[in-house]
């Protein structure tokens, strides 16, 4: 079977992949394709169709700096509006011609003889000089491996694979109390006959304070773009100020008093309030933003089950205290495979080992973007580029500038680029030191920020500005092979 050769192959057409495509075109680089497994673009904003799905970062900040949108309807935009924004970006920046939809990548192997990547997709083979992985950390749903899952007689689905035809008028179980559950519960509570929320660990919730943008504001943003840039800058500085608390758990414990007052104001029942009160420092797990989650839990038809799920039976769920809960529908709001992304299992580098084998459950990459032993591979939203305090698009854009620097180096005669193993090792040690004592590692919780070894392999422990300043291509940090 013949292969199509391209200079650059981008895997994924969400914010990361589309952002890479747009910046490549803006830099005058057009020899690339975007391999997308689905038949449409959008990533998580295409896949997550559950009721109430919306961004939990303000829209002016959760958008590309090079593609402002004066037409956002609300401060926190809903899923459909974000997806429409991505589609518009693809159209306006000429990306559609580079898309290869329905091309699920099943294997990516470094070919040392030809010094290129060999890709196997569901619709043919490709070779590429450069491989950019824009698959995202929230692309593969995680459903717990529970005994008896196949025996359940009702409808069961993950929040990211929403079953729009599932009848929700009966008894519904929502398993999980993360960012998806906090949006789903208030938006289905009026439709259900009874709702049971399985809360293994209560989460910290703070007010969302969402509002609509007026037509006057939208016109102002369109006619005087600097006004929206000023709002974006204001939001940016506000979010960066949160980092002081994340890096100082003692200070964060003072801040969490406000969250406790919010809980007390929203939940009059003392017993329910006690069950909803977290026993770890604010910020140790992802902070949830909602104006209607707590009121939904006070409804008579809602029961908060303060126990995990032990097993699934034909009629429902058995919790860890041995109690059986009969339900008609199970919604798994149980998050994603972050520390062990599926993409890592099928990317093989110089040694023939996959990323997953090299990482052994604890991902490591230089600046979260390149990995020693994997030439010309660039990860977007890779290890330690996640954020607990601001918009991921800030990190993605910084990574794109780093990648453009490497691609330009390849254009000047270099054939392969990968980080010096010692430079990468020093960087990982620096991340370890930077994360020590922060609320993410010393806040008294177990979160998806930490991998199976207990390391924080997810979050960047400093300001986004520090990453932007750091994410520059420096030739001396890399092992480079010339033609």
UniProtKB/TrEMBL annotation:
Its EC number is 1.14.13.84. This is 4-hydroxyacetophenone monooxygenase. InterPro entries: FAD-bind_Monooxygenase_sf, FAD/NAD-bd_sf. The keyword Oxidoreductase applies. Pfam families: Pyr_redox_3. Keywords: Monooxygenase, Oxidoreductase. The lineage of its organism: Bacteria, Pseudomonadati, Myxococcota, Polyangia, Nannocystales. One of its GO terms (molecular function) is 4-hydroxyacetophenone monooxygenase activity. The keyword Oxidoreductase applies. The gene is hapE.
């Amino acid at each position: 079977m013949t292969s199509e050769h391209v200079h650059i192959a981008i895997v994924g057409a969400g914010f990361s992949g589309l952002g890479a495509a747009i910046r490549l075109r803006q830099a005058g680089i057009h020899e690339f394709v975007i391999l997308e497994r689905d038949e449409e673009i959008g990533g998580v904003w295409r896949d997550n169709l559950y009721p109430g799905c919306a961004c939990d970062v303000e829209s002016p900040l959760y958008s590309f700096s090079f593609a402002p949108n004066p037409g956002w309807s609300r401060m926190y935009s809903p899923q459909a509006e974000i997806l429409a924004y991505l589609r518009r970006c693809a159209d306006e920046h000429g990306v559609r011609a580079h898309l290869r939809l329905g091309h699920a990548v099943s294997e990516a192997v470094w070919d040392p003889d030809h010094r290129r990547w060999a890709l196997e997709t569901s619709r043919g083979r490709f070779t590429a000089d450069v491989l950019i992985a824009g698959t995202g950390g929230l692309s593969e749903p995680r459903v717990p491996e529970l005994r008896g899952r196949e025996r359940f007689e009702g409808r069961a689905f993950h929040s990211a694979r929403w079953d729009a035809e599932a009848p929700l008028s009966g008894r519904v179980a929502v398993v999980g109390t993360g960012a998806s559950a906090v949006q789903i519960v208030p938006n289905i509570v009026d439709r259900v006959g009874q709702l049971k929320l399985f809360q293994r660990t209560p989460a910290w919730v703070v007010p969302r304070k969402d509002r609509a943008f007026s037509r006057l504001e939208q016109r102002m943003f369109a006619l005087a773009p600097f006004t929206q840039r000023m709002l974006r800058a204001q939001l940016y500085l506000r979010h960066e100020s949160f980092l002081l608390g994340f890096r100082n758990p003692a200070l964060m414990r003072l801040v969490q008093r406000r969250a406790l007052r919010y809980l007390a104001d929203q939940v009059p029942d003392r017993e329910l309030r006690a069950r909803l009160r977290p026993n770890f420092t604010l910020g140790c797990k992802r902070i949830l933003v909602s104006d209607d989650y707590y009121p939904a839990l006070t409804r008579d038809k809602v029961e908060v089950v303060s126990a995990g799920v032990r097993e699934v039976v034909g009629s429902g769920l058995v919790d860890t205290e041995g109690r059986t809960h009969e339900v008609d529908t199970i919604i798994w709001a149980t998050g994603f495979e972050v520390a062990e992304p599926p993409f890592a299992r099928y990317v093989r580098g110089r040694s023939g080992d996959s990323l997953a084998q090299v990482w052994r459950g604890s991902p490591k990459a230089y600046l979260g973007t390149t990995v020693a032993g994997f030439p010309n591979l660039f990860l977007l939203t890779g290890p330690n580029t996640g954020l607990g305090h601001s918009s991921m698009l800030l990190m993605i854009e910084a990574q794109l500038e780093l990648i453009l620097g490497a691609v330009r180096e390849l254009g000047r005669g270099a054939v392969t680029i990968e980080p010096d193993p010692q430079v990468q090792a020093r960087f990982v040690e620096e991340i370890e030191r930077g994360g020590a004592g922060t609320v993410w590692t010393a806040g008294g919780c177990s979160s998806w920020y930490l991998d199976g070894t207990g390391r924080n392999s997810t979050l960047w422990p400093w300001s986004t500005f520090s990453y932007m300043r750091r994410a520059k291509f420096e030739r001396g940090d890399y092992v480079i092979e010339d033609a």
